[in-house]
Design brief:
The protein is an all-alpha fold. Helices cover 55% and strands 0% of the residues.
């Protein structure tokens, strides 16, 4: 079992990016991905692989002109946002009165 410890600054940068419109866009793009497709980007425990980190950083920089403060920040923010989007109820599934 491996354990990765992150600094509070890293965690704060992931949290700060999670609501960025480009992060939401990237997470929305992954909503239709199957578990098999996601497994090529993210490990079973939710850690993004190096390829996904590089792709996410490149896309974020391309769309914003900014660079993420830490390697993996963008990819982890996308994974977190994707989890939030998947947990949210569908817009057409409003509770009945």
């Amino acid at each position: 079992m491996s354990v990765t410890a992150f600094s509070p600054a890293f965690d704060q940068s992931v949290t700060a990016l999670a609501d960025h419109p480009v992060i939401t866009e990237m997470a929305t793009d992954l909503l239709g991905a199957t578990p098999g497709q996601l497994s090529t980007l993210v490990s079973a425990n939710g850690d993004p692989n190096n390829r996904f980190m590089a792709l996410a950083n490149d896309r974020f920089t391309e769309r914003t002109g900014d660079h993420a403060p830490f390697l993996g920040t963008v990819a982890r923010a996308v994974v977190a946002r994707l989890a939030e989007l998947r947990a949210a109820p569908a817009p057409d599934s409003a509770p009945s009165a």
